[in-house]
From TrEMBL:
Gene3D superfamilies: Rieske [2Fe-2S] iron-sulphur domain. The chain crosses the membrane at residues 56-78, 98-118, 167-185. Residues 244-334 form the Rieske domain. The cytochrome bc1 complex is composed of a cytochrome b (QcrB), the Rieske iron-sulfur protein (QcrA) and a diheme cytochrome c (QcrC) subunit. Keywords: 2Fe-2S, Cell membrane, Disulfide bond, Electron transport, Iron, Iron-sulfur, Membrane, Metal-binding, Oxidoreductase, Respiratory chain, Transmembrane, Transmembrane helix, Transport. This is Cytochrome bc1 complex Rieske iron-sulfur subunit. Belongs to the Rieske iron-sulfur protein family. It is found in: Cell membrane. The keyword Glycoprotein does not apply. Residues 1-39 are annotated as: Disordered. It comes from Streptomyces caatingaensis. Iron-sulfur subunit of the cytochrome bc1 complex, an essential component of the respiratory electron transport chain required for ATP synthesis. The bc1 complex catalyzes the oxidation of menaquinol and the reduction of cytochrome c in the respiratory chain. The bc1 complex operates through a Q-cycle mechanism that couples electron transfer to generation of the proton gradient that drives ATP synthesis. It is a multi-pass membrane protein. The keyword Disulfide bond applies.
Amino acid sequence: MSSQDIPEETLPSKQGEAHEGAVAVAGDPFADPGLPPHEHRIQDIDERAAKRSERAVAFMFTLSMLATIGFIAAYLAIPVDKNIYVFPIGHVSAMNFTLGLTLGVALFLIGAGAVHWARTLMSDVEHIDERHPIEAPSEVRAKVIADFHQGAAESAMGRRKLIRNSMFGALSLLPLSGVFLLGGLSKAPGTKLRHTAWGKGKRLVNQNTNQPLRPEDIQVGSLTFAMPEGMKEEDHDFQNQIAKAALMLVRLRPENIKDKKELDWSVDGIVAFSKICTHVGCPINLYEQQTHHVLCPCHQSTFDLSDGGRVVFGPAGHALPQLRIKVNDKGYLEAMGDFQEPVGPAFWERG
């Protein structure tokens, strides 16, 4: 059927808009069918169902409050260095896992409660509002305000006091999570930066073979990486420990050692220095035998291992910390204590 065969009053306007309230006519694809009949929810006709929905929403808001309280309790009670095993993730920080879980549950329950409230108790009657020019006249602004008040009334905020009070409680407690997180910014590291896994009597273990080291295992001009005895790569905190305890051993000829303290802390020319660069903490692994220099590959800081590990080039701020070593009665190399100064980058309390 062509457009000439359709009565003029049923055709769309020139702008392509259907006439308001037009009745669908056979063969007219542009007629406005109107809104379907409104279907009432069970909560609209049964007050007992409405009460059940109200209790469900309040229950979710209450659980959100409990989750927030759990967040605060976890922050205060769980040690920072405690780890737990979570399948299938593996070993994770107990505090971080608990904080993330409780905060996520608290936020989810507030959102789920609000959605359930809107879907079951707030008015779902469809309203048609015709388009209007961008510049709203005064009567439209008055209508918007009236619609807002009508929406507030239809939300049953005043009548559903259980929902209102529990929602306010959940929203009031939730910001406390952020307050307690900010509290963590004020905690000083204490002496953690000054201590590593090294200690008196700890044998030096080859990091590649996991075997205790003897002086004869280290040749003149060689570079060997070591770690404290008892550390294993499968340990959950291995990466945190090795980041501070990583050690490099170089055997020099005693007559080539310039620093007296370094000579006293060595064994037959074997010197032990921290492997962690004092610039930004990169691992040092490049050794030049002729000059006794080690080079950090990140920013080319260079240290002289024959002169107390001092900086000879690059942005590093201070020398590499040296570990005092000796040979025990079984012929193995062992530490005589921990590093006497913090390893890695400088911090303001270094002196």
